[in-house]
Amino acid sequence: MAQPTLPMVTLQAGIQLIRAEVADDDRKRATGLMFRESLAPNHGMLFVFARKAGHCFWMRNTLIPLSIAFIDDDGTIVNIADMAPHSEASHCPARPVRFALEMTQGWFAQRGIAAGYRLTGKEVFGPGTETSGPGN
To answer: What is the rounded average pLDDT of the residues 9-36?
Structure first.
């Protein structure tokens, strides 16, 4: 059974606009993208935690392959991992973070987005994140 769509935010990666559902409580984060059969182009899910920590993810009951970016408070990507459907393998940030963004697998790589790239979105990462790109 597909999960209902959550409230959305817009993030930016260079010229790419990302529409991300926000999972910002334990129930929403636990459900994540489980049982979804697809994601619309440039859509994903942003996981928001109250504190920085080594928040790890797995793919039990997730039907589609995903890539996850672990993100610092200023929008800088710490690391990205590819995750296989139905896997219980843990995928963790390289250092404590408060944000993680799941997109269709390969989305980041196809756009040349890697660790060190800065996503923007002042409603998420705060003021001063109006520019994006590597090292900005």
So the answer is: 94
